[in-house]
Amino acid sequence: MLGLWKTWKALEAKGIMGINRRNADYVLKYNKRNLYPIVDDKIITKERAIAAGIDVPKMYGVIETEKGIDKLREIIGDRPDFVIKPAQGAGGDGILVIADRFEDRYRTVSGKIISHEEIEHQISSILTGLYSLGGHRDRALIEYRVTPDPIFKSISYEGVPDIRIIVLKGYPVMAMLRLPTRQSGGKANLHQGAIGVGVDLATGVTLRGTWLNSKITKHPDTTNSVDGVQLPNWNGFMKLSAGCYELCGLGYIGVDMVLDQEKGPLILELNARPGLNIQIANDCGLTHRAHAVEARLVELAKKGITETPEERVRFAQELFGHVPKAEI
Predict the structure, then answer these.
(1) Is 74 inside any structural domain?
(2) N or C: which end of the chain has fewer CB within 10 A?
C-alpha cells in the first residue's frame, strides 16, 4: 500500500490527470450536456464548421434509412476514393476507407477488394447503431478521403495520421500526433494500436512517442524516428483548435485534425471526452496546464477582458512550449 501511495503522490506532483479528475473537474464542469450532440454527431459538427467557414473534409452525402442506401451509387458517382463513417461512431469503429476502384469493385486502403453489396451491408450495419455511442440508430456519412501530406510517409503505415489538441476554454493545452501502424489497420486510434507522439505547442516539432502504453522513439513498421519532425503549418492547426471553442461551446474538448497534401489543415471531429494517453506521449501532465489556464481566466475576468483565438494560442505557446519564450 505504501508503494502505491508513493506512486500516486509522484504522479500527482507531476500533474498527471486521472479519469476521475478529468470527468469531475473538466468534462462535467465545462461541458453542458445539451451541447454534446454538436460533437457526438460528426454530421452536425461538419455542418456547423462549414457554416463558420472552418475547413473540413467535403461531405458527399448522408444516408439515413435503409431505403436511402439505394442512393449510394448516385452519391459516390465515379469518384475513385471516399470514406464512409458512422455519424455517431467512436474510436474509429465502423469506418470504411475506399482508396481506389478495381473494375466493378472497390479497393480499401489496406488493399482488400470488396463489392458494392459489401459496402451497402456496412452502411446497413451503421444505420442499425452497431458502431454508435449507446447503440442508437445512426446515420452514414460519405465524405472526401484525405490524402496525407508527404511528410508523414516515412513515419506512418497506410491510413491517415491525425493531430489531436486538447483545448480548455479555447486555450490549447497539449497536442499529440497519432500515427497509424500495421497493428492498428491503418487507423490513427491508440486503442487499436496506433502510435501517439507528443508535439511541442510552440513549434510543432514532434517529441517522444507512446505505443501500446510503452515509450518508443521509432515507428514499429517503418523503423524511422518519430521525434524531431517539424509539422507544417503548425500555427494553422493551433488557431483551428482554439476556434473550436466558439464553434461548439464546450469548454473541454479534443480537436482532431488532419493535414491534407492539397487542402492543408482540416478538422475531422471534436471529442467531449478526450483520452488521457496524450500525457504519456508528452511526458507531461494535463493538470498543471489546466490550472494555469483557469488562473488566466480568473485574471482576465477581473479586468473584463476576453482573449481572441490568436491571443489564446500565443498564451499557450509561450507558457506550455518546450522552447524558451524568446525563441518562439
Answers:
(1) yes
(2) N
